[in-house]
Amino acid sequence: MNGSTQNSSVQRESWLNLGRIVKALELVQDAIVICLCIGLFSFMVLQLRTMFLSMLPPIHSHVVTADILSLLILVELFRLLIIYLQEQRVSIGVAVEVSIVSVLREVIVRGVLETNWTQILAACAFLLVLGTLMVFRVWLPPTFDGIDPEQQVSKRVKNRIPKEVLTSNRSKN
After folding, report:
1. Virtual CA dihedral for 107, 40, 37, 146, nearest 10 degrees?
2. How far apart are CA 71 and CA 73, in angstroms?
3. Cα(43)–Cα(71) distance, rounded to whole angstroms?
4. What is the Cα–Cα distance from 107 to 65, expressed in whole angstroms?
5. Cβ distance 138 to 91 under 8 Å?
6. Could you tell me which of 171, 168, 158 has the C-alpha nearest to residue 18?
7. What is the pLDDT of residues 94-112, one digit of tens each?
8. Would you call 17 helix, strand, or coil by DSSP?
9. DSSP 8-state class, residue 7
10. Is the pTM of this model over 0.70?
């Protein structure tokens, strides 16, 4: 029964050509991320233009600060997408940095004195959790220095299936 299950999975894989389908889906996903990068870059250029126009007299420091922080968030998001394209993973460190800057932007733009104390308390708790995550992230071992545990397991399984198919074919003959 075990041999027939493996045979059917090998036949299904060869019939569907799963490897080619996965590669095509990854290509489509990369194309989507590239479109996001282009759109985000265009939006950053427009935001930069808006920021420079807001620096013309009369200067509203509140608006300029909000524009600068928004631009920093966009830059970090762009960096996150670039890292994804290069390494096919989402960088936890960059994602946490984006979250921290986003929360701080909202607090700065709204003003600490004008914001409800429960929202400030929630923002502080959220920032504490994100800061803790950043600290613990430093101590976590890197898993993407050319060694991907999932790829290692996948290679072992792929190497084992052809050997089992060969032995089952030999036993039939």
Report:
1. -10
2. 5
3. 9
4. 12
5. no
6. 158
7. 888 889 888 888 888 887 7
8. coil
9. H
10. no
